[in-house]
Design a protein that fits this description.
Layout (H helix, E strand, L loop, with lengths): L6 E2 L8 E2 L2 H11 L5 E2 L8 E2 L2 H12 L8 E2 L6 E2 L2 H12 L5 E2 L6 E2 L2 H7 L1 H4 L4 E2 L6 E2 L2 H8 L5 E2 L6 E2 L2 H12 L4 E2 L6 E2 L2 H11 L5 E2 L8 E2 L2 H12 L4 E2 L6 E2 L2 H13 L27 H6 L12 H15 L1
């Protein structure tokens, strides 16, 4: 005879019950998100609420598989990482018993709730009902999904309640997590990193670096700029060009000067003229057609060349002498 499950979970929306009190205490760890069984390996951060789950993790992830103890199925020869998975496989795949059968269409089902959900096709009645709001569902899975909407999570430190577990964790961190972020300047503490970053801007007043020499009113926002000013204006630490003895204020300007004035000059292209030996064009003095007319297939009538510049000048001088 099966034992009565008298120990019921007190959380709203969770109707799980157990026959032993220690099993209920172990189940409550899931609601409180307490994982007391931590993996002892140094490089592993896994933790579980159940010792059997930890043992399965140790046997699967950290224990080397002995060649003489291979968990192989004797029927289909599949290999599993532990004995428990092998037993589950044999029970589901090879020792499957189908005790629930539909009287109408003679279909078989391994579980009762699957047969109950199937009967909706014949009766049209939704067999699964919510005990809290009387909502009806076709399958047990749909009912379980609906029960999540009734489940609430309570804050252990204040009366705050909420349905989403992630929202509760955020509330715990913001309201009860303590002052985690401390300002190094004034030792003021904050609960969120963003608040600390916004506060630090108060202390980040721009510093002014003034020139220490007399009769020099120069000041800078960076110390490196002040050092460069002192080296150039007061210490006269200039960089001299070895080629033309030009003096530059920084090494970068000296390198740019050498590259621009002494290296690139030798690579500049020299354009020839008629005086320096440029060849005369082969089509010089001939009539040239327009490229657009060539592409369009049209010919352009040649125009008679007009008087040259020297001829125009001679005609202009003759007319001026006649007028005189």
């Amino acid at each position: 005879m099966a034992e009565k499950k008298t120990h019921r979970c007190p959380h709203e929306g969770c109707g799980v019950s157990f026959s032993r009190p220690y099993r209920l205490a172990q189940h409550l760890l899931v609601h409180d998100n307490i994982k007391a069984f931590v993996c002892p390996n140094a490089n592993c951060s896994k933790a579980y609420t159940n010792k059997s789950h930890l043992d399965r993790h140790l046997n699967t992830a950290h224990q080397k598989l002995d060649k003489d103890e291979i968990n192989r199925c004797p029927t289909c020869f599949k290999i599993y990482s532990n004995r428990q998975n092998l037993k589950r496989h044999i029970k589901i795949q090879h020792n499957l018993k189908i005790p629930f059968s539909c009287d109408t269409c003679k279909l078989d089902f391994p579980k009762k709730h699957m047969l109950t959900a199937h009967m909706y096709q014949h009766t049209g009645i939704k067999s699964f009902c919510c005990e809290l709001c009387s909502a009806e569902f076709i399958s047990l899975l749909e009912k379980k999904k609906h029960l999540r909407s009734h489940r609430t999570h309570s804050c252990p430190k204040c009366p705050f309640k909420i349905k989403q577990w992630s929202r509760l964790q955020k509330h715990m961190k913001l309201e009860h997590g303590g002052n985690e972020y401390i300002c190094n300047e004034c030792a003021r503490s904050f609960k969120q990193r963003g608040h600390l970053v916004r506060h630090i801007k108060i202390h980040n007043v721009p510093k002014i670096f003034s020139c220490p020499y007399e009769n020099c009113n120069r000041f800078y926002s960076r110390n490196s700029n002040l050092k460069q000013h002192i080296a150039i204006k007061h210490a006269r630490l200039l960089h001299e060009c070895d080629i033309c003895n030009a003096q530059l204020s920084t090494k970068a300007k000296l390198e740019a000067h050498v590259l621009r004035q002494h290296i690139n000059d030798s690579k500049k292209r020299v354009y020839k003229t008629k005086a320096t030996g440029r060849c005369v064009r082969k089509d010089d003095g001939s009539f040239k057609l327009s490229t657009a007319l060539k592409l369009a297939g049209l010919l352009q009538e040649p125009r008679t060349p007009g008087p040259s510049f020297s001829e125009k000048t001679e005609v202009c001088n003759m007319s001026n002498s006649i007028k005189a």
